Amino acid sequence: MQYLLKLCVETKYIVSHNIAVPDGISNGSPCILKKVIYGQLCEKDSRERIPIRAYVQFEKESTGEKTRQRLQNIIKADGITHNNWTPIQRICRSFSLNENTHIQVTRNQLPLLPSNAQTIHCSQSCTYDNILVFLNKNLSRKLLYTACSRVTSLTGLYLSGIYKKPARATLENDPSLREMTRMRDEAQLQFSLIFPEDVKNQDNMIVLFHNVRSLNLHFQNISCDPTFIASDIIMLAETWSKPEDKYDINNFTIISRTDCRSPKRKAFGTLIYAKNYLLPHVKILFQNESISGTNHFTIVALTIFNQTVMMVYKSPKASWNLVKQQLQQAITMSLKNQIYDISIMGDFNIKYQVSDPDFNSLKDFMKGNNCFMMLDTTKVSTDHNSLIDLCFSTNETRNAHIFESVTSDHKPIWIELSMS
């Protein structure tokens, strides 16, 4: 903070300290001084009238909005009627007099700095439409880059002085270049998500399940999401849909759908899409829905290219024993049709961990039907750190993954099947 701060209304300043970072008032925030409020500091024998508060207008109107709300009584007492003027109050900062003494000095000052001209270091958080950079031979490559990158476009960049090309960056003289080279060669980051659209080809088929938490609310997001559109079969649960709702997606046909039966939308409803080219090959083998109050479960089994794909949705309070009985019927029906390649996916609302009372029963049931867990059990399928959206298959070679959702607290899961 400056020992002597000159204040001039309608002049550009920057905030010199982090005052309210979440509110945008941080070191380097540009503003224009609009008014100065004078008063007295609460100190003994000090009746001198000095600037105690400055009102500034930030470039972005949203900057300082929370501060203005918090200090609205002070703003009203100062007679300020402009909605976008933000009060900046004096702050105290202590520092050592020098390196060789323990004497502390406390400075009480307004945290502002004149900024019609400023150092390159102070400009690092600022962006301007027009800037003038004063060049000198001592400007390093880093400082020159920082200065010239403060402007929004080259048309607003002006240079004054003699330009001297900085030394070329090499591994020997530039630590940043060394670090970038190290990261490329030795420490490459591997993206953890596998996109279905990246593995889709003419020989495979992508089946995706998602507890969408209201298709009615998120249909626009779902219908244009590249991951959903790249899938061949889309299975959705908790659609919150009503019979009159229309959810048409280009190149897809709805082959199975259940809706809310009450006048009010609730966490019910399922919907299955299939790509149009698959329609001659898709057959609904089994379908069962049970609703009793908040106890709700749905099971749909499809056959396609000598494979069975089952969607399961079980509400949190629904009985796993009842679901298990219906699921066993679907599996038995698939086996009677001599279809042994079976994949089961959905929201079981059973945590895949020992602490869940139904975990062992679920695990034993799947093992008894020769079904293997296909997802990485170290991952979670919800934003609540639980793995309850599950995928099983009798074919251990299948690829299945957990994806990400921008609309639901459940993550989509998908499995790669064969086209033949």
TrEMBL record:
<feature type="domain" description="Endonuclease/exonuclease/phosphatase">
    <location>
        <begin position="309"/>
        <end position="413"/>
    </location>
</feature>
<keyword id="KW-0547">Nucleotide-binding</keyword>
<dbReference type="InterPro" id="IPR036691">
    <property type="entry name" value="Endo/exonu/phosph_ase_sf"/>
</dbReference>
<protein>
    <submittedName>
        <fullName>ATP-dependent DNA helicase pfh1</fullName>
    </submittedName>
</protein>
<dbReference type="InterPro" id="IPR027417">
    <property type="entry name" value="P-loop_NTPase"/>
</dbReference>
<dbReference type="GO" id="GO:0004386">
    <property type="term" value="F:helicase activity"/>
</dbReference>
<keyword id="KW-0067">ATP-binding</keyword>
<dbReference type="Pfam" id="PF14529">
    <property type="entry name" value="Exo_endo_phos_2"/>
</dbReference>
<dbReference type="InterPro" id="IPR005135">
    <property type="entry name" value="Endo/exonuclease/phosphatase"/>
</dbReference>
<keyword id="KW-0347">Helicase</keyword>
<dbReference type="InterPro" id="IPR051055">
    <property type="entry name" value="PIF1_helicase"/>
</dbReference>
<keyword id="KW-0378">Hydrolase</keyword>
